């Protein structure tokens, strides 16, 4: 069998994953005889979860397209401005509910996502196989800075997190997945990822310090850890963070 050679061109930030000499230009690569688009894209270093659209010879294809000699493959990340709705995207459907599972290095981001109201599983003992299983069984988006994890077979939705600081990571995820409209602050317990429930002052008695009971009217509790939260200074700092993320959020909360 004669060798199969295809030409590849990766666009925008997908280039970050390529070996330096291959960035920002078309290049040829030899492919195995049954190699699919997904196989080759990942062999070149790009996790498939980062890819939104693949064109082979100008036509949009899925991850399972087997490559033929002379194919020209263009690979695109999520588009910000360019309208690609007429083209087939590689994923069959977006996830209906946004839920995450964060890898062991993203504890800070996991807490901030919970703060913003997004169900996020996190445990610093999660093994890669566990994360993969949770993502598949509960339709969760995998968040990681480990591109090998995103190459795992059953992971269909994932985000390679580029930023290093939790607050910047939160902004990155909110921007990338266009989540600003879905932020609901103080809905989930930061420690347990469980829903917070409103309680009145009487129910908070004995569970919050006296001075706090005098000064505050609004309390919420988590039914898992039984902790009680109120709008203290820590809460206000968090509120400032959420508001910086979503400037319109304060208005929306005021109306709700
Ligand atoms: Zn809790």
TrEMBL record:
Organism: Trinickia soli
Every Mut7-C RNAse domain range: 99-241
Record-linked Pfam families: Mut7-C (PF01927), Ub-Mut7C (PF14451)
InterPro entries attached to this UniProt entry: Beta-grasp_dom_sf (IPR012675), Mopterin_synth/thiamin_S_b (IPR016155), Mut7-C_RNAse_dom (IPR002782), Ub_Mut7C (IPR027798)
Protein name (database record): Twitching motility protein PilT
Domain spans labelled Ubiquitin Mut7-C: 5-83
Coiled-coil ranges (or none): none
């Amino acid at each position: 069998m004669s060798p199969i050679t295809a030409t590849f061109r990766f666009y925008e930030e997908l280039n970050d994953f390529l070996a330096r000499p291959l960035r920002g230009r078309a290049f040829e690569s030899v492919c195995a005889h049954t190699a699919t688009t997904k196989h080759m894209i990942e062999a070149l270093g790009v996790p498939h979860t980062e890819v939104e659209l693949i064109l082979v010879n100008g036509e949009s294809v899925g991850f399972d397209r087997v490559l033929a000699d002379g194919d020209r493959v263009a690979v695109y990340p999520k588009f910000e401005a360019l309208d690609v709705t007429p083209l087939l995207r590689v994923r069959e459907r977006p996830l209906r509910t946004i839920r995450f599972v964060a890898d062991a290095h993203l504890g800070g981001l996991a807490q901030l996502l919970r703060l913003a109201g997004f169900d996020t599983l996190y445990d610093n003992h999660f093994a890669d196989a566990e994360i993969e299983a949770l993502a598949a069984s509960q339709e969760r988006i995998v968040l990681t800075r480990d591109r090998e994890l995103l190459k795992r077979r059953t992971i269909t939705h994932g985000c390679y997190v580029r930023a290093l600081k939790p607050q910047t990571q939160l902004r990155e995820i909110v921007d990338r997945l266009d989540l600003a409209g879905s932020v609901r602050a103080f809905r989930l317990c930061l420690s347990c990822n469980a829903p917070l429930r409103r309680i009145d002052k009487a129910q908070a008695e004995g569970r919050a310090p006296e001075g706090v009971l005098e000064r505050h009217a609004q309390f919420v509790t988590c039914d898992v850890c039984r902790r009680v939260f109120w709008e203290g200074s820590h809460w206000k700092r968090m509120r400032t963070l959420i508001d910086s993320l979503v400037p319109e959020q304060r208005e929306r909360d005021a109306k709700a």
